[in-house]
Amino acid sequence: MEDVQKHSVHTLIFRSLKRTHDLFVSNQGNLPDIDDRLEKLRRSIKASDTYGLVLDRANKTMDAKKLSAMQNGDPERPLAITDGSMGLAATGADLSATASEGGAMVRYSRDKEKSSCNTTVSLVRASMPGNSSGGVINVHLIPKKAASIPKPKWHAPWKLSRVISGHLGWVRCIAVEPGNEWFATGAGDRVIKIWDLASGKLKLSLTGHVSTVRGVAVSAKHPYLFSCGEDRQVKCWDLEYNKVIRHYHGHLSAVYSLALHPTIDVLATSGRDSTARIWDMRTKANVHTLTGHTNTVASVVAQATKPQIITGSHDSTVRLWDLAAGKSLCTLTNHKKSVRSIVLHPSLYMFASASPDNIKQWRCPEGNFVQNISGHTAIVNCMAANTDGVLVSGGDNGTMFFWDWRTGYNFQRFQAPVQPGSMDSEAGIFAMCFDQSGTRLITAEADKTIKVYKEDDEASEETHPVNWRPELLKRRKF
User: Fold this and answer.
1) 3-state helix, strand, coil in the chain (%, to 5)
2) In the predicted model, is pLDDT for residue 14 greater than 60?
3) Does the structure show a pLDDT above 90 at 30?
4) φ, ψ dihedrals at 59, nearest 5°
5) Are 80 and 122 in contact (CB under 8 A)?
6) More confident residue, 321 or 73
7) Lowest mean pLDDT, pick from 8-17, 70-79, 238-247, 384-393
8) I want to staple 309 with a disulfide (CB 3.0 to 4.6 A). Which of 35, 321, 407, 455 is the partner?
9) CA 192, 198, 201, 204 torsion: positive or negative?
10) What does the radius of gyration of the chain's CA atoms come to, in whole angstroms?
11) pLDDT-based confidence at 447, cuts 50/70/90?
12) What backbone phi and psi angles, to 5 degrees, belong to 409?
């Protein structure tokens, strides 16, 4: 057996330090030194690959510039369209353009006989017919237009008209009947209540859900009321018999929102299982399961034109769906926080999405960003829009903001008053919608009440002027 060589403690510690140093402090992870010749070669290859198509045209333009400078004998003269400070404003300018194969140059030649030009102009090249082969190209002077900022339309302020109490839990959803005679509400007491819109009196109570009712919708073509709740159930009620006639089974967790398609007999629902589901109203079949969101789908809306289904989710995205294929057309990732509400404009081909960071407006069908509506800093639970161009947003802290849809001007804001006997912390707005005429706003709130708002008839532009200060440099925050 071979003897193990013995070392002093000092030697062993030194060797251990050396191994540690070699392991952690070595430059094995560093990149090699940059070779200047190879770097220059890489840049030239990249440049020729990117700009090879137009490189010859650039060279021809440079050659033409040098040739023109030699002919004129004045290489210092500007050979580009400038702001006119080098001769245009002082002595006037005679614009002559010389066409070459690589492009056209606009050259200034001074002329003392012409008067000075003081107006702000922009130079626009006008192509003349039969001029493609060469010759003189006309340059027109067109006055610039000042950027116009649209002024907001005046809207009458809104005031509280009626408070309806009857639910025993948070009121979570509202739907107005197409005939504008009654509306339905669903609440945390598991009851759906039907109210008379004119008088505010209770007409009917429907029981059947075993957990909070989170969404209601009334069909315009059938005598049906649809409801969904945290018990994972989606129900179809026949309002002629006031009974449940269909159940739509499939959601794996709470169902938070539902929407009826305006022209075909399908129903869209969305919920906490991160999906939206399309149901055949008659056969109860789950036609499509729209997957793609990574968190709760809080809001779903349906319209007759593309995109027919739009969803907003707590994963801070908005998705536009192709209903025929059951696939996502587009994903809008502009929001930074949860999107809890989406509202379609009743007459314009647009929609808005609400998040604590911003309310954003989009243009259909591609989902092009239009503008931000900033100022409502609370968690925005719900929104509503009418044909008059009023957009309302309701916050989790009970704040209501009224906006002009076109300009995003906030013409009114207030805190919704809580029911006597409630705590201030119970001021929260969960749902809102306009009636069919757009003159009544109904809100569902955390103090277990339903509030009806109407426009102030006595208000005018003199008593409530538009206090409008436009942002001259309005940044498009995405």
Assistant:
1) 15, 40, 50
2) yes
3) no
4) -65, -40
5) no
6) 321
7) 70-79
8) 321
9) negative
10) 34
11) very high
12) -80, 130
Task: Return the HEC string of 112-125.
Answer: CCCCCCCCCEEEEE
Long-range residue pairs from 279-283, CB within 8 A, at least 24 positions apart, any chain: 279/234, 279/248, 279/250, 281/219, 281/222, 281/224, 281/236
Is residue 308 left, alpha or beta, with left meaning phi > 0 and alpha meaning psi from -120 to 50?
alpha
Token representation of residue 212: 């909070």
Span 225-239, pLDDT tens digits: 999 999 999 999 999
Determine the pLDDT at residue 16.
Answer: 87
pLDDT of 119 higher than 70: no
What is the H or E stretch that residue 283 is in?
Answer: none
Residue 146's SS3 state is coil
**Distance of alpha carbon 364 from alpha carbon 307, whole angstroms:** 7
Q: Is 137 exposed, middle or buried (0-12, 13-18, 19+ CB in 10 A)?
A: middle
Q: Where do we find the tokens 């036609």?
A: 287
SS3 420: coil
CA distance linking residue 88 with residue 28, whole number of Å: 63
Q: Which residue type does 133 have?
A: S
Q: Give residue 151's pLDDT.
A: 86
User: Using 50, 70 and 90 to split pLDDT, how confident is the model at 289?
Assistant: very high
Structure tokens at 115: 């008067």
Q: What does the mean pLDDT of the chain come to?
A: 84
Backbone angles phi, psi at 410, to 5 degrees: -90, 100
CB atoms within 10 A of CB 232: 18
How many degrees, rounded to 5, is the angle at CA 74 between CA 70 and CA 75? Answer: 70
Q: Token digits for 123?
A: 């130079």
Largest CA distance in the chain: 113
Name the E strands within 339-438: 341-344, 350-354, 359-363, 368-373, 380-385, 390-395, 399-404, 410-415, 429-434
Rounded to the nearest 10°, the torsion over CA 269, 270, 275, 279 is: 0
Joined together, the tokens standing for residue 335 give 């929001």
Residue 330 neighbours by CB distance under 10 Å: 16
Beta bridge partners of 432: 443
Q: Which residues of 387-421 are buried (b: 16+ CB within 10 A; e: fewer)?
A: ebbbbbbbbbbbbbbbbbbbbbbbbbeeebbbeee
Cα separation values, 5 from 12, 13, 19, 44, 438, Å: 12, 15, 19, 60, 96
Pairwise CA distance, residues 426 & 417, whole Å: 10
